[in-house]
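Notes, Module 5: Reading structure tokens.

Key idea: the token line is not a picture. It is a compressed description, and you learn to read it the same way you learned to read a sequence, by spotting repeated patterns. We will look at two proteins. The first is printed below with its tokens.
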Amino acid sequence: MKLRTRRAAPRGEDRAARSAPASAWAGSSQERAAFLRLVSLLLQYPDDGLLAARDELCRAAGALPASPGRDGLVAFTGWYRECEPMPLARSYVETFDLRRRSSLYLTYYLHGDTRRRGMALLTLKQRYRVAGLVPPEGELPDFLPVVCEFAALAGPATGEAPLRQHRKGLELIRSALRSAGSPYALVLDALCAELPELSAADRAAVAGLALDGPPAEDVGLAPYGPPLDEMLAPYGPPPDEMEVRP
């Protein structure tokens, strides 16, 4: 899965990238884009195309410059390459499709299934279009592989802004994967290692979300815009409910 480019990124993007929050990344912007694109691919369903490319994915991970995230991707791709196709597919479905706690749809963690989430999805889709990118048909714009692909294409300042905005949600996914003993935790470890650290307040918020779950719809408030199911109808049904407690 790839986002399609309608036009090149603005020339000012390199200058804007220098104003983005610093990370420990030591490579070039092209190598950072390769890192994010690799994360995007590894978090997608392992279809025939990805299965056929497993050796190439391993080489891509090994070719990344030394960074906090590289070792995690190298370790994960080693497991990914050796895993039999059916167990690999089953692991993916059980991890991401059947457990809302480790769902890859980022706006859920911030807004729950509320009208605010619907507006956030529309805003994110518009962000892609303003940057000259066309989101894939039939997929929600907050799907983490889509968000990572956008980050790879649009650069650190513009492209990685959604990842920074949903840093707490990424931490929740990472924690759920670690608790489940999933090898996919290595991919989230790698991604989070290349993003700004959480503040103490953010960590407290993550702990609260892990305990109580995302927000529910406010009762008695008039909706701002159409109902959530109408806004998301073009994308298909949402995943199952999140498991907020063991």
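Here is the second protein, with the sequence above and the tokens below, as before.
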Amino acid sequence: MQIYKVGGAVRDRLLGRPVTDIDWVVVGATTEEMLAKGFRPVGADFPVFLHPKSGEEYALARTERKSGRGYGGFTFHASPEVTLEEDLIRRDLTINAMAEDDQQNLTDPYHGQRDLEARLLRHVSPAFTEDPLRVLRVARFAARYAGLGFTVAPETLALMRQLSESGELEALTAERSWKEIARALMEDQPQVFIQVLRECGALKVLMPEVDALFGVPQPEAHHPEIDTGVHTLSVLEQAAQHKQPLTVRWACLLHDLGKGLTPEEEWPRHIAHEHKGLKLIKAVNERFKAPKDCQELALLVGEYHTHGHRALELKPSTLLELLQSFDVYRRPQRFEEFIAACEMDARGRKGLEQRSYPQADYLRGAATAARSVAVQPLLEKGFKGPELGEAIKRERLKALKAYKEQA
């Protein structure tokens, strides 16, 4: 029995990056031997075990054969005869197909170290095209390592394009796709993830609503970058630079989908794009079964982001409606995330990345003013039921009028 550290742990150590998860592969062992040593089996598909003390995953060396569509369409074969090289060749990228023993001796049959030095994301073998999830994984690695100068090898991009055109991407489950998308959006340069998906034709398959934004112009006075797709990437980039949470990043990606529906004769204006985009945002949300908080914020940001930009001009009554829509009284955090998404949208424009956004503090102040209205005095005056609701609304409106006059 020989045990090797494999994959990301080896890659990140060689890159000088912190190693978080460690995967181990066991060569020359049987399931019975692993159980005898106290390892606990997990999963039914192939033999993976948890270490009795550390809880880390140890997998028996295995080969795999394509047996159906999609990410799960594989038959695995594990036996003591499977070599380390046979196990490594089924991996996606050369930089993930290295192993090291307990003395840190490197096994690198597919030249992963050479590709690390060349800053290339390159597939290990033609079997790359058997797993459609790899398109998303490679785009995610491109987003993670873009800051180190990594790019996707042209021949790997060609295979990703082949996969995108094959219909295999449609076989991915919403859960698997969302897991990759969510992880990619939380990388340092999530805009690169979208760019790579677009380059290989996968964006058109997975998110045609986002793909449709590229080539759609906006008024240059507000958008020096002009192209709506380029603007969306910039907004996502700003969200990452400002360390925004996943909810905000997802909303940033989808906020302008309505502009993809504007007839060409109306370009570069996009009248009512906020309302038109809601059905598209809803469709993307449902396609990937995004978590509820991501879904809700994306829809609210899509509908109200221009309200955010025009906050200083809004009438008190409109401002009150906006606050009610977000339920700022019970869910203050969601309104904070809306403000953040609006600010990222304002900064995601060529040459305006450092602009100030006074609307943020103004909106926070408005929320505080509305929340400061006390209900108890109204109850003491005898208001109840619908009348109490109207009385609270009147008092909040009064508070917002006073706030606007002072601001």
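Summary for the second protein:
- The chain has a mean pLDDT of 94.
- Residues 316 and 404 are 7 Å apart (CA to CA).
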